[in-house]
Amino acid sequence: MNSSEFPGIFSLKGELAVVTGGGTGIGQAIAQAMHAAGARVVLVGRREAELAAAVKTMGEGAAYAVHDITETAGTGALVQRITQEHGSITCLVNNAGRHLKKAAVDTTPQEFLDVINTHIIGAHELTRLVAPGMIERKHGSIIFTASMASLFGIPLVVAYASAKSAMLGMVRTLSTELSSHGIRVNAIAPGWIDTDMSRKAFAGDPARKNKIISRTPMAKLGDVSDVGWAAVYLASPAAKFVTGAVLPVDGGASMGF
């Protein structure tokens, strides 16, 4: 090892990253960080205006495709379109999600299923269709956005917590199936991050924010870029021997009190 390897060991030059839920929040931050690290990026999401605005901030080497990943009948066409227009997908970030804050006894089967369809079924279908190309090229990185709800109990989010916990099972199984083909599969578990969504959740509820800060050893919320740069690391050659891992980016919250 010598200094000439740095910072190139963290470079994503030559990679094509597809980021679902890439128009806002953590997904946008991941796309921006990967783009800054040299990757070309394609943002996938349901809302074109948000996707277009996010791509505009990045400029050349960034594009978007409008698609709802729960519409699995159209996922094959999405992958084909991206491949034809931009080339082979070498990095997939399964970040798209759906949140539901509701007591377990009040959560209906359909509400539960809607959350599972986004985090698990939609992500699996996209992964299933992208993986063969990665296998053929013996090169690829797949990253899932997990959650603190994957690691410990949080009230009023039974569907979300179940989906994020199932996601970790998918990460571990995929890593055992795909790693011998040169494809690494990992997850990031963000803690409480300062996003538009979290600001809305905290609005008018200072006690909730104070509770979160008090149980976070670093005593602050994270920045979306903290997650973005963690994703760059996992996708880069620096993490070439890292697979099946869950990386908390949480200011120490998962360590407990």
UniProtKB/TrEMBL annotation:
Pfam families: adh_short_C2 (PF13561)
Protein known as: SDR family oxidoreductase
Signal peptide (residue range): none
Domain Ketoreductase: 15-195
Listed GO MF terms: oxidoreductase activity, acting on the CH-OH group of donors, NAD or NADP as acceptor
PROSITE patterns: ADH_SHORT
Protein family: Belongs to the short-chain dehydrogenases/reductases (SDR) family.
Keywords recorded for this protein, A-Z: Membrane, Oxidoreductase, Transmembrane, Transmembrane helix
Transmembrane region(s): 142-163
Source organism of this protein record: Oleiharenicola lentus
Transmembrane as UniProt keyword: yes
Domain of life the protein comes from: Bacteria
SUPFAM superfamilies according to UniProt: NAD(P)-binding Rossmann-fold domains
Coiled-coil regions listed: none
Highest classification ranks of the organism: Bacteria, Pseudomonadati, Verrucomicrobiota, Opitutia, Opitutales
